[in-house]
Specification:
The protein is of the alpha+beta class and 151 residues long. The chain contains 3 helices and 7 strands.
Length: 151
C-alpha cells in the first residue's frame, strides 16, 4: 500500500505491485480511517499476499483493519498508479506501476469498526467530505465512482 515513507528492504519485504481499496459505507456515509504511521486519512486498503485474488485480499483487509467479516463487492474499477523513483526500491525490480482493485461493502446498522494497529481513529463522513480527506487521487476518483453507482 502507498506510504509516505518506507525503507527499502530485502526482496521478501518488497511491496507487491497489486493492492486493494475497500470503501465501507452506510447510507450516504463513508468510513474513513486515520493511519497512525503516515498520519493521513484513508479507506481500508492493503497489498495482495502471495497467491491471493483481489476479492480475497479485499475481504482479508476488511477483516484485519476493521473486524468486519463480509464479502466486498467489486466496483469494476481497476486503477494503476505509477511509482516514483523514490518508491522504486520498495517494489520488485522492473515494477513501474501498481494496480488497485476497488471494492465496496455496506456496513450493518449500528456496526463500528474494531481498529488494528495501523489506525488510531475512525469516522463516518459524507462522500464529499470523505473525498476531501483522501490523500491519493485514485481514492478520490473511486469515491466519485461509488457515488455514481449508488445514486
Amino acid at each position: 500500500m502507498r506510504t509516505s515513507s518506507s525503507p527499502a528492504g530485502s526482496m521478501s519485504s518488497k511491496h507487491p505491485p497489486r493492492e486493494v481499496a475497500v470503501f465501507v459505507h452506510r447510507g450516504d456515509q463513508l468510513l474513513v480511517l486515520h493511519r497512525v504511521q503516515e498520519n493521513y486519512w484513508h479507506v481500508v486498503a492493503g497489498a495482495l499476499e502471495q497467491g491471493e485474488s483481489f476479492a480475497e485480499a479485499a475481504a482479508r483487509e476488511l477483516r484485519e483493519e476493521t473486524g468486519l467479516v463480509a464479502r466486498p463487492i467489486d466496483m469494476g474499477l481497476e486503477q494503476t498508479y505509477a511509482i516514483t523513483a523514490r518508491e522504486r526500491p520498495m517494489y520488485p525490480r522492473g515494477t513501474s506501476g501498481v494496480v488497485i482493485g476497488n471494492f465496496h461493502v455496506e456496513a450493518p446498522a449500528g456496526w463500528e469498526p474494531r481498529l488494528n494497529e495501523e489506525h488510531d481513529r475512525h469516522g463516518w463522513a459524507d462522500f464529499a467530505v470523505a473525498r476531501e480527506l483522501m490523500n491519493w487521487l485514485e481514492t478520490q476518483e473511486a469515491i466519485d465512482v461509488l457515488v455514481i453507482q449508488h445514486a
